[in-house]
Amino acid sequence: MSESHRQSLSGEKLVSKLLFSIQAFTYTCCSEGAEARRLLRDSKASDMPSLLSKFGISGLSLDGNLLLLPKPKPSGDDGFQPFDGRLGKLRYLGLALMVATSPVSMEVVQLCISFPSSSEPEDPFNFESFKRHNEKSSIRKRAPVAYPILCGHVLTHTTGTLLAVTGRARTEEGKYDINSVVDDCRNFIQLGLVARVAQVIIAELSPHYGGDPAVWDQQIYIIIEQNDMLPNDSSGTDTGEREWTCFGIQILRALLSPAKMESQEPAASCQEKDNRISSQIMQTIESAKVEAIAFLRDLSLICQILMPTIFVEDDMPGGDNSTPIFERLMQLFHIENLGMLMKSDLLQNVITSWYEDFTGKSSNLLDFQRSFKGPTWPVSPFCITRHQLANTNDIIPPTCLPLLGKCATATSNDYDSFTSRILYLPKSYTDLYAQLSEMCPDSEQTALCLVCGQVSLHSRTLQCTELNTCRVTSTTS
Length: 477
Known about the structure:
Blueprint: H1 3-42, H2 48-55, E1 59-61, E2 66-68, H3 85-101, H4 105-113, H5 128-133, H6 154-171, H7 178-205, H8 213-227, H9 239-255, H10 257-262, H11 271-306, H12 325-332, H13 338-342, H14 345-359, H15 381-390, E3 400-402, E4 424-426, H16 429-439, E5 447-448, E6 455-456, H17 463-466
Antiparallel strand pairs: 1-2, 3-4, 5-6
Helix pairs in contact: 1-2, 1-3, 1-6, 2-3, 3-6, 4-6, 6-7, 6-11, 7-9, 7-11, 8-11, 9-11, 11-12
């Protein structure tokens, strides 16, 4: 391998480590935010000031879902107020990631969002030229630098683009106007919202058809086109609900548009089956709003950590509690109309390319299991509530939380073959350690799967890992 290609490979390795750091930053922000919301929700009014000071929070909005961080004020503490508290300390990590991301901002954005390109391959780290220059040599297949966005952690992908934009602006200070930087961040947030909703919808629909895209994508696309599922003004539904349904249908249509080219003629359809699939599609789109709310809520905190002045007073949601929380979050991020957003031909091309990246296989990349992940970390209260409603017989103790697998469509019967497993995850590490010590008294290193709860003496003997039934969503490979 030549020196130039060796340097390119070294650069790819550094970017891969950078993406791992971005993922850790994203998870830390979400974990601290969830802990702050939990403590503030359960605390007494007299304890609120001390908790706000402990986390570095200046106020709350949206019924406690939106944490407001302080803005820098030169008149007090020399403008270091945003660095106070547990959340404020994360700004130091954010600034370090901005500096590290700025030299490779274009590569990070392409890896995180994967914009379509006319040139092949689209990978910013192109080793195909080495193969063309030396036909006698064979290229060793390598792991992808980042998973396709639809089978990765969309919140981390979006955070990576925000770090690229803000890092470039800080490095080249004075070259970019603050308003243009904020607009770029809002545009990437909208792309992330579309990707997250698309991921949740397909994750919920695909298990009903065996998970094989070659089977179910054509069926769903034909039903959407033939049944004209877009609601109209005379349907009697709320304007916000009607707009959300149209948003979900348009995402599905853009995702599955290649199925229209592959299907030669429409297959014979059964009206009863079509109605059942249509009902499943509508229910899935409605349930996806829960994940969209959690996505925007977590991003609101990450945005404030990276850009303390991103939200001005006019952006703050009003005090009218009758307005749905999703619409108030849209107001916060200046997302005016979902229907107008989906009319962009460029956006539809991007969505189509995402699905092609998921289903396609590059010749120079190692193959990996491709699956859509609906519920993912961090496990939100919305996800827990939905699980409790769907499983009324399961009573989660107040000192425990559901396992990650309990938020998926799979039931506990899928794991009955595992001999040792826990049913719920204790909130206290001491309680968890005591429970695992009782199950494996002679083991000093106990392995626990947070998805299904299986317990084993060694991580290599986890049956769920061997059967590949449990996978944790991540950004990098």
